[in-house]
Every structure is written in structure tokens, then in C-alpha cells.
Amino acid sequence: MSLTEIQLNALSTGKFSQSTIEFDCECVVDREDVITGYNIFWIEKGEARVTIDFTHYDIKPNNFFFLNPGQIFSVTSENKLIGTRIAFEENFYCPKTNDGEIGCNGLLFNNLLGSPKLEVEKSKKKKFTDLLTNIESALAQEITAKQELVESYLKILLIELTEYKKKEIVLVDSSEDEEHEILRRFNGLVEDNYSRWHQIGPYAENFGISSTSFTKKLSKLGVSPSKVIYNRIVIQAKRLLYFTPKQVKEIAYELGFDEPGHFSTFFKNKTGQYPADFRKKLTKTK
Asked: Does domain 3-166 bear CATH number 1.10.230.10?
């Protein structure tokens, strides 16, 4: 793995760490790193293409990008990429019960409706580098309440990043807070239920309206609910096909399909390939 990582400091519990990182050529962050925690990457120098769950994103200086547990992540770079990585486990700050825009199903993490990267204007760079420096300083202190101090700085960073991320979201109606909440809530419901709720009905019922009304409501916000649901199922299917030796029929049942054939047809319709062909192609390129 072509990743140089110098750990600046970490809590003794291992729930939180901050590192200086360098990517000097094509590399893949291994499965364990991806699965065990939430990651924030801040890129200071260099340009690269990162691939997150088989989708490519071009990363430049002053970019953040965010990773969730379970994601497949690789980096292709022709020059040295330098930055900072913050990694924390779900039970450190961001449990599922921690609701809201800065939580695990907020605008930064597990956001099925937006990009995992965030471009920061040069004029705003100092604000974020100062916040990262505060975390680094807190980690270096030998005090009784170190974890509480680090957690407070992390929360401030997440709040600032979330507020900045909001500026990327263009909503049609004027009641932005209500619309943000609808999208965030739907995003969370899909993340928690995609393997058992394949149709719009249960999600609409959760909002107390009919499937037709729910579809129209989200369509006005530029979101197709069925597409979001299907895309999440496909992402998980690709992860399982890539990372595990499970048979296609096992993956089908795990994702809530009654018949393996229905899953194969669904996957073919959404990706253009049958699951077995997708896996075979990936195996050849590993």
C-alpha cells in the first residue's frame, strides 16, 4: 500500500486519531481501515483521483472528503498528495442515535444524496486548518478530560463543515430548514433499511403520506426516491461482490431479495452486468 501515515496523536482508547498522510502513487486503503471508522481527509497539496464505492472524484488542494465504514476507497495520483486524516469510531462521537445534520446520517457521512467531497475557498482555508490544529494540540495534552476536549473540537469542526456543505445544496422552495430535514431523514431511513425496504411505500408511510405524494414531494427537491433506494442497494451489492467470497445467492438474500434470480436481474438492469460478471471483471483488475 502506497500510503505513508504519520500519526500525530491518538486517544489511548483508540477511538480517535489524527495523522499526517501522503499518497505518492496508486494505492488502496485496506478493508480494515475503511470498515472500522469514519474518516475525514483534508488535502493540502497535490491533485488526485479518488474512487469511493466505484465512483470517481477529482481531488485538489483545499478539498475535504469523507468516508464511511464499509466503503471501498482507492487513490490514483501522479504526484505526491499531502494532507491530514482524522479517523474516529462510531461510538466515539457519531452513533446512530446522534441525530441531526452533523451525525452519521447527516450531510457529511452516509449522504446518499450528495458528493463525499467538499471544496473550500482559499479565503476559508485558515478557519479549517486552525480547527485541525486545535484538535492536534488537544491530543498532545496530558489532561484528565482529553477525550471531552477532543470531542468538543471535533464537533465544532463537523458543524463548520456541515454549514459549509449546506451552501452546495440548492433547494427549490424557500423553507430550506424543512427541506433539509426531509432529505436528511429520508437519507437516514434508506441507510438503515435499504436491505428490507426496496419500494417507496414503507418510507412514505414513515412520513405519514402516500407513495405518490412522497414521490412528488421529493421530486420537487430534485430527488428521485426510488433511484436513491436502488443506488444504495447496488452500492452494497458491489461492496459484497468485491470484498467477500460470498456466493451471489447469499448476497441476494442478505440484501432482502426472495430469489437470487430477482437480484441478478435487478443488478443487471442497474449496472449493465450480472453480479457474477461484475465480480469476474473486478478479480482480473485486482
From this structure: no
